[in-house]
Amino acid sequence: MQSLSQMFDKAGGGYDCHATNCNENDALMFKDGNLVAGSKEALIQHLVPTTEYNPDRTYVFTFLLSSRLFIRPHELLGEVCQVCTFQQNLTSDHIQKQKLGKFGQNVIQLLSEWTEMFPYDFRDERMMKQLKEISQRVLRVYPELRQDMGGITHNLLNKLAQLNRYEEVLSKLNAEAIKRSQTQIAPTTDIMEVCPSPLRLAEQLTHIELERLSQIGPEEFVQAFSKEETSKTVPVYRDMKKTHNLEAYVQWFNRLSYLVASEICSHLKKKNRVRLVEYFIDVAKECINIGNFNSLMAIIAGMNMNPVSRLKKTWAKVNKTKFGILELQMDPSNNFGSYRSCMKAAMWRAQGATDAREKIVIPFFSLFVKDIYFLNEGCPNRFENGNINFEKFWQMAKHISDFVTWQQVECPFAKHTDVLHYVLTSPVFSETTLSLASYECESPENSYDKERHKKLKAEAGL
Length: 462
Hints:
By secondary structure, the chain is mostly helical. Helices cover about 65% and strands about 0% of the residues.
């Protein structure tokens, strides 16, 4: 089965409308055979299957992804149910099944794709109610599809249960990390004692990245940019801004950066700090080889934090050439041109790869989100005539379909729970504590640092 990303590539970034459907509604507008705009009502109509028509999978993904900017998911599913009921006269006691053709199978297919692509929509009780209503209407006519519908419901409930378990584990890990940070003043060990091998640490970081990446719903990218409209003609959707897993992933990046800085600054002996800096450089290098660019960037960001970067005596003993090569990856010039070239190479390697190790593509997440943000801000959602700018949503969906492909990769490396537990729960310094630790490692030399050190000590009651 083709991935969504491959389907978008084949379609050239747009939805190629079947000839029989191009004129189904004058409110849909096409350019070179691709749907580029339409009214909300026409786009919903285009989503609803009929006796012969089944919407293209790329259209279903794009519309369900973008529609939440102008209609709540439970309201959309309610409208789909109403259109199906009205068009096929499902309330009649004298339905002629043979006239409905493949309508039942087509509706079940739409529900299957919705629950598969956007399962988190169904954490809303209103969605589950609508799902039950539309399935009951279809099964009354097509009882032979009951097993198919049962499979859809079973898979959906499994996904939602898995999400609940993930969130519970995440909450416990975060609570343990906070507790340890509050109770432990000085570290009793460091990362190199727990995991001497840079390659092994890079592999364990990849485990964490792929697990957290896999839990982000594609709709979270759109919901992250949804704004509370003040216009009287546009409804406000405060209850839609659900981006918990996306935010948790950003927090993981920050934690890893602070962990790197904390590990380095926790050692008063210069030789130990040098050893750790060079260790993290090697870990970052292994992350590049794996295709784990998010951990790479977090490690570099940690070493570039002021409390670490100011340690001149430490850096004087470090192989700066190796670190310089890594820093090129984070060079923002030419819109992160160097990183984007590496990222393209990793994507090219992943396409058609048979070895699971070559399929891993973990983007620098902050930049990925930023790209989508600028795409969203750079183009209007609607045109002056009120029609929805679907061409914009094709482009957004193409970016996010790539992400969906990356998050489906299973980590091929063996798990080492002791390393994972250390990375996820080991105490990290706060910004103030990190700065104080840095000054303990190497005393302030200039007047600015001396004054700042004095101020920080006073604030900390030292």
